[in-house]
């Protein structure tokens, strides 16, 4: 009986070690994919080549409707890109799955209050994650070339996903909110799991959570 128990314990330990090893390999492979796909396509704000559209990926909005510092920093970059003539329109993407929570709407209010014409802004209310935002930008809004704006810990994954999904994407990352050390650190840790999810999304080529009809708002913003 003791011998059999010992065998089961050893088998359990072996299986556990195998799972851990596979997890490590998958994580390493995901990191290599994101970095490789984004290499040569991530720039400083001053050095990024011009593109028709800036895609601002969503982030937390507070109960009063104001963007969190992470989202505000992304929006500030997009505004400066517009002011500098690097882009002609801004697509703000984010979560509006609940009536009382509206990342794109709050982003639009923030930009307009800082002088961005509403006619230059398009809103994607179903950008529930980075994959969905990139897929919908291509399939629903017809974006073929863009500058993706997010934080630096996220930029490689965002550019890799958009490029894999058919957008000629470059990226600009924000470091200014690194001063919020705890949420920054937590986001960096979560990014490791998000990379694995991104790989799974790309392999399965799943549809976004919500597709809906074709939108012309990006084209209208470009022509505005």
Automatic annotation (TrEMBL):
Residues 53-169 form the DUF218 domain. It comes from the Bacteria. GO terms for cellular component: plasma membrane. InterPro entries: Cell_Envelope_Assoc, DUF218. This is Vancomycin permeability regulator SanA. It comes from Paractinoplanes abujensis.
């Amino acid at each position: 009986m003791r011998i059999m128990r010992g065998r089961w314990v050893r088998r359990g330990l072996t299986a556990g070690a195998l799972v851990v090893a596979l997890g490590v390999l998958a994580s390493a492979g995901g990191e290599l994919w994101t970095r490789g796909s984004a290499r040569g396509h991530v720039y400083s704000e001053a050095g990024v080549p011009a593109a028709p559209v800036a895609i601002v990926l969503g982030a937390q909005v507070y109960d009063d409707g104001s963007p969190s510092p992470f989202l505000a920093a992304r929006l500030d970059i997009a505004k400066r890109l517009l002011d500098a003539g690097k882009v002609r329109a801004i697509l703000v993407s984010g979560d509006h799955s609940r009536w009382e929570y509206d990342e794109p709407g709050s982003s639009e209010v923030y930009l307009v209050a800082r002088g961005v014409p509403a006619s230059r802004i398009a809103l994607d209310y179903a950008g529930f994650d980075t994959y969905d935002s990139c897929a919908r930008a291509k399939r629903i809004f017809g974006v073929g070339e863009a500058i993706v704006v997010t934080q630096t810990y996220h930029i490689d994954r965002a550019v890799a996903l958009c490029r894999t999904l058919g957008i000629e994407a470059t990226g600009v990352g924000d470091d200014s909110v690194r001063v919020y050390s705890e949420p920054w650190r937590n986001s960096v840790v979560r990014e490791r799991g998000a990379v694995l999810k991104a790989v799974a999304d790309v392999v399965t080529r799943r549809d976004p959570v919500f597709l809906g009809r074709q939108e012309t708002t990006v084209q209208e913003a470009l022509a505005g």
